[in-house]
Amino acid sequence: MVAGLWGYGRWRQASIPPLDRLALDAAYPQMPADAHHRYVNLPVDYADESRGRYRAFYVLSPHFDPNGPVVFFLTDGQMELVGPNPDFSFFDEQLPGLSYVLIGHRGHDPTLFPEVYPGGKLDLRRAMNLYGSWQRVEDIERVRQDMVAAKLLPPDGRIMIFGASGAGVLAQQYLQRYGQHVIRTLLVSTGAPDLARGHGWTYARHLAELDPQAAASLAQIARRGHGEPPGLAYMTFQLGREGRSGLAKIDEVLHAELRHNPLPYAWNALNPRLNWRLIRTLLGLPAADAVRVRMYELLGADLQNPAIAHSEDLPLYVWSSRILSDYLDAHVPLPDLRLDRSRYDGEVLVISGKDDVVFSPAIGQAIAAAYPKGRWLVIPGGHRLERDPGYQHAVRRAFFLHGLQARDTAALLDSPPSAN
After folding, report:
1. Cα distance between residue 345 and residue 265, in whole Å
2. What is the pLDDT of residue 144?
3. How far apart are CA 173 and CA 140, in angstroms?
4. Whose CA is closest to 294, among 305, 280, 283?
5. Has residue 256 been placed in a domain?
6. Cβ atoms within 10 A of the Cβ of 240, count?
7. What's the mean pLDDT in 141-152?
8. 3-state DSSP assignment of residue 324
C-alpha cells in the first residue's frame, strides 16, 4: 500500500509541468561542482538573449586529460543519457581510453524549461524553439568556449566529435556552424534528412530492404485488421534495433500474429522497453517533451505525407505518427536541416551497420561522400553495432588518436569483419 502510494506520488510529480529551475548560482545536490562536474549559465533562447539564462552543466570523463585529444560525446533530444550522475561504463564502452565530454541536454530531466508551459500547458511552438536542435548546437559551442577559457582544451581550442543515431545528425548540424573548431568527426549508425530527401529516400529505412518477409507479414496483418498496429510496429522497430537476433524474434511474433496467436506478442510486451502502452504514456510526460521535439524535427517531413506515415514497411513511422499527432495536427513548422557539407575540411568517418533497421547503409555512404574528407565503413551488426566490439574499439581509438591517413587506421578500415 505504501509503495503504491509512493509510486503514484512520483507519477503525479512527473506529470506536472515545471514551475521553476535551478538557480544560476546553485548546483544539483547529487552533483556538486568540482574538477569533473562543471556548471555554465547559457541563454534560454539564442535568438533573444534577453529572455534570460538557465543553469547548464557538463561532465568530463573520469580520466580526462586536457592536453590530449578531446572528444565531445554528443547526445540529441532522443537520448536521455546525460544526467548529474551519468553511467560512465556505457560511455567508456563507446570511447575506450579516450578523454570525452558529456553535456546535459536542455529539456531533459532535470533541466526543464517553465517557458515551454505557459499557464501550465505545453506550447508546441515554444517547445520546438527552446528545445530545438539549433539551440542545442549553440549550447555545445558555448561549452567549448567555456572549456577554452578554463584551459580544458588544447591551446587551439579544437575538438573532435562522436555522434551516433540522431546525435550523428546533430554532429552534422554542429559542423555546419562551427566546423572550423573540429579536427575530425565519427558518425555511427546515423542518417541525414536533407540527403535522404535529395535522393528520393525516406529518412528511416524500409523494413522490406532488410527483411522482406517481415514487411510482407506486417502488411498482411494490417489488411486483416488484426492486433494493435502501432503496438506491433513499435515492438518490431525496437526488436529490429538488436540486429539479427532481434529480427529472428520479429519473425516469431509476426508468424504467431498471422495464426491469431497473441502469446508471443504478449510475452515480449512484458519487457517495459517493448511495451507500447507504457512507452506511449511515458512519452506524454513533460520530461519527454524534448524527445518528441527531436523526433518531430527528424521525422516530421516524412510523417506529413499520409502515404508514408502509415506504411507498414516503415514501423518507426507507424507508431511515431501517434506520438507526434499533436505536432502534425497543428502543422508546427519544421527547422531547416539542409546542410552544406562541402564547407567542412576535417576528417569524417561514417560507420553503418549492415542490418541496421533504422538507417540504410546507403545513407551512410551518401553522408561520407558529401564531406571532402569523408570515409565510409559498413560492418556487420544492427543499429547498436552489437557485433565485433574489439574491432570497433580499435577503429575508434585509431581514428581519434591518429586520423584516417595513419597506417594503423587505414589497415583497420581496409580489413573490416565480413558483413556476410
Report:
1. 49
2. 98
3. 11
4. 283
5. yes
6. 26
7. 97
8. coil
Q: What is the 3-state secondary structure (H, E, C) of 357-399?
A: CCCCHHHHHHHHHHCCCEEEEEECCCCCCCCCHHHHHHHHHHH
Which of 329, 355, 385 is the last residue in one of the domains?
A: 329
Three-state DSSP at 109 gives coil
User: Does 132 share its domain with 42?
Assistant: yes
> What number of CA atoms fall less than 13 Å from residue 112's CA on the CB side?
20
Q: How many C-beta atoms surround the C-beta of residue 375 within 10 A? A: 17
Strand-strand pairing, 99-103 and 182-188: unpaired
Closest CA to 381 of 348, 347, 412, 420: 420
Q: And the C-alpha cell for 38?
A: 562543471
Range of the domain at 304: 207-329
Q: Please give the grid coordinates belonging to residue 21.
A: 529551475
pLDDT of residue 358: 95
The mean pLDDT value for 326-334 works out to 97
Are 123 and 23 contained in the same domain? yes
The CA distances from residue 409 to 88, 347, 361, 418, in Å, are 26, 13, 21, 17
Cα(303)–Cα(301) distance, integer angstroms: 6
Longest alpha-carbon distance in the chain: 65
What size, in residues, is the chain?
Answer: 420
Same domain? 142 vs 49? yes
Q: Whose grid coordinates read 546533430?
A: 170
pTM (predicted TM-score) = 0.94
Q: Report whether 277 contacts 322 (CB < 8 A).
A: no
The answer to whether residue 169 scores a pLDDT higher than 90 is: yes
Do residues 299 and 375 both lie within one domain?
no
Rounded CA separation 168/390 (Å): 22
Tell me what the mean pLDDT of segment 170-180 comes to. 98
Instruction: State residue 205's pLDDT score.
Output: 96
Beta-carbon-side half-sphere exposure of residue 30 (alpha carbons within 13 Å) = 5
What nine digits make up the cell of 397? 581509438
Gyration radius of the chain over CA positions: 22
Measured CA to CA, the distance from residue 144 to residue 103 in angstroms comes to: 10
Can you tell me the mean pLDDT for 295-305? Answer: 97
pLDDT at 4: 38
List of residues 6+ apart from 365 with CB closer than 8 A? 350, 352, 376, 378
Judge whether 3 lies within some domain: no
Decide if 169 contacts 193 (C-beta within 8 A): yes
Percent residues over pLDDT 90 in the chain: 84
pLDDT for 8 beyond 80? no
